[in-house]
Amino acid sequence: MQRYASLTGGSKVVIGMLVYPGMFLQDLVGPLAVFEALMNRDIHLVWKNLEPIANEKPEHKALIPVTPTSTFKDCPKNLDVLFVPGGVPGTLTMMEDPEVLAFLAEQGKTAKYITSVCTGSLILGAAGLLNGYKATSHWVTLNVLAELGAIPTKGRVVVDRNRITGGGVTAGIDFGLKIVAMLRNEDYAKAVQLYLEYNPEPPFDAGSPEKAPPVVTQFLNDMFAELVKTSKQTAKR
């Protein structure tokens, strides 16, 4: 195995992933699948208590409950990765939850990497962890980051010092691979990518507002106009 030392070695990595009611499951599962491929790691799904929580909206019938593995109180300190997923309506609630914001702010003092995917960056911003940092979000809410002291930056994955933020939803896999490369090395991350057979070939080239037909982009803008408005109002409180 010495031949493959660069692909299997490394000290233990400790990752804390916030989970919460109303998060978007893919925001969590994408990075989690990548992180679980790491050897010698501890992953904590963190919430206020250990009761199963529902993702998405309660009226959706195909909910997959997520069971936390650590509470805020029990979560290890000095995390290698502090991670926050996004999701509606959960993001808006978390942006105003004092207990959540206090937990993130405290963990942010010692975490090696402070990270998010999708609208999770709005929660980091509400916790005061993105002031003066370049960051990204889902394209619909990207400009809301300015209200939280961050520098809105387009990108699938944006790295500014120890703040690493991913774009919307499926960017979580790209984000996860970037984190693995930073924790280990590029060959290690490439091995994880191959293990997951992450080689996307979408049937349509419409995965960004720049590529999608204008009518489709406008439809999404109209659909999420109220979310953007409410997010900005919440950010200003």
What does this structure look like?
This protein has 237 residues and is of the alpha/beta class. The protein has one domain: Rossmann fold, CATH 3.40.50. It is built from nine helices and nine strands. A seven-stranded mixed sheet has the order 3-2-1-4-5-9-8, sandwiched between helices. Strands 6-7 form a two-stranded parallel ribbon. β8 and β9 form a beta hairpin. It is globular and about 55 Å long. The mean pLDDT is 95.
Topology, element by element:
Layout: H1 5-8, E1 13-18, H2 25-36, E2 41-47, E3 70-71, E4 81-84, H3 90-94, H4 98-108, E5 113-117, H5 120-126, E6 134-135, E7 151-152, E8 157-160, E9 163-166, H6 171-183, H7 186-195, H8 214-223, H9 225-236
Parallel strand pairs: 1-2, 1-4, 2-3, 4-5, 5-9, 6-7
Antiparallel strand pairs: 8-9
Helix pairs in contact: 2-6, 6-7
Structure keywords:
237 residues; alpha/beta; Rossmann fold; 7-stranded mixed beta sheet; 35% helix; globular
- The CATH topology label is Rossmann fold
**Count of all domains:** 1
Point out poorly predicted stretches: none
Helix content, binned percent: 25-40%
CATH homologous superfamily, by name? Answer: Class I glutamine amidotransferase (GATase) domain
Biggest β-sheet description: 7 strands, mixed
Mean pLDDT: 95
Query: What is the CATH class?
Result: Alpha Beta
Quaternary = single chain
Radius of gyration: 17 Å
Order of helices and strands: HEHEEEHHEHEEEEHHHH
> Could you give the order of strands across the largest sheet?
3-2-1-4-5-9-8
Which second-level CATH architecture applies?
Answer: 3-Layer(aba) Sandwich
Please tell me what the overall shape is: globular
Strand tally, please?
A: 9
Tell me the structural class.
alpha/beta
